[in-house]
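Predict the holo structure. Ligand: iron/sulfur cluster.
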Amino acid sequence: MAIERFTGENSLAFIRSEQLFDYARRNSLWYLAFGIACCAIEGLMSASGPRFDFDRMGVFFRNSPRQTDVMIVAGTVNHKMAQTVRRLYDQMPEPKWVVAMGACACTGGPFREYPNVVLGVDQIIPVDVYIPGCPPRPESVQYGFIQLQKKIAAQTEERLAARRANS
Ligand code: SF4
């Protein structure tokens, strides 16, 4: 087994179940297949294709919000679309994370002067990682996911440290 490479044969490794679940979670971040505009071509299609192959990082799309961990907001969010984005976010189970991909999702981007455009998806839902660019390269999206994995690991450590301090 892979664990033997770290611990040696006939060894035991102790880990909290919470750490194990978080480890599994951050290495299998399933995102909602939901693209709004041109960023979706880069973020959802190029990234999942054979060249960049996000699957090897455990990043894979699902078509139901009820089976996803991450929402990638890829595109310009207008006020009409905002209700749908919020509803899909609410349908995702906890714990869940949001990646704002591209200038439009981060700030409104090149369309921010139009009155029907939301000036950043963080006005509707909480955002964990912002990826700039118009559109961002798939490498940037990959880097964004690595940052998200680090954030999830840090949240686990913070939670465990807080519990140790209180015990
Ligand atoms: S950031 Fe650029 S590429 Fe992405 S949705 Fe907006 S206009 Fe399109």
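Residues 18-154 form a domain with the Rossmann fold fold (CATH 3.40.50.12280). The chain has a mean pLDDT of 88.
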